[in-house]
User: What shape does this take?
Amino acid sequence: MNTHKNASLTPKGRAHLLSQIAVLGLVAAAQAAGISCRTARKWQRRFFAEGQAGLRDRSSRPHHCPRRTDAGKIERAVALRRTQRLTYARIAERLGLSQSTVARACQAAGVARLPPLQEAPPVRRYERKAAGELLHLDTKKLACFAQPGHRITGDRRRRTPGAGWQALHVAIDDHSRLGFSRVLPDETARSACAHLLAALRYYHSLGVRVERVMTDNGAAYRSRRFARLLLRLKIKQLRTKPYTPRTNGKAERFIQTALREWAYAYRYPSSAHRADELAPWMHHYNFHRPHSATENLPPATRLGFVGNNVLRNYS
Assistant: This one.
């Protein structure tokens, strides 16, 4: 048993107390140890009765609990929770117990939170056969700052000037995992359209023609401006099911990678410096960084940039 954090004496200290009692007497030894004479006499009595074992800590649990809840009722409460999925209130009403007693019993048995009735559907992974068949689009709001904030300094009391927001717009090819991203002022339809056009020019420079895009149901991607642009470009739009971000999982995963390896990887002096470092990081991601989905090769290798070709053309 662990010694109580507020205990004045440890078992070793109690043994020292007894030796001091033999030399100084009980009152003087108790005063020197900072304890009462009653406590000193208690340890002396236990030592005489049990020896060294009497100096160890004991459980504070009472020897008798006449009002303790019947073990059979506890088992029935847990069984009702597990088999019939009843609430604490219903179980307490049926068994004549308090809700707090039922809650403690269920927590101890590991049934405080019940598993869902319907199991989660299995993960369905897919990948298009050729680059450009599907382009995933998404955005992530980022804070503006003129000096390092609490994420770096750890001080939330310090106000950082330059408060505001900007948006990271991302695009990632479903087949090759080749990414393109920019930091824009907002998440409006105008910015979404500008990002799409820039992404199309980038992929076109690599010989990729985009046929369709997948987006979530954000306002920018449901806007008329965005729809007219897709119609003019003859690009089909696929939207994810509401409240199901995993459908656009490649973009979501790319955003998490960008946040970890670019946005929050260094102590940037300002958000402007952070934005300046995005293009070099994107180059590293596309042409040099191994990707698990492409057999630990850079995404650009799926477009034919293999080995030295990557370094020669895009280093």
User: Anything to note?
Assistant: The chain has 13 helices and five strands. Residues 311-315 have pLDDT under 50 and may be disordered. The radius of gyration is 33 Å. The chain has three domains: 11-55, 84-113, 135-314.
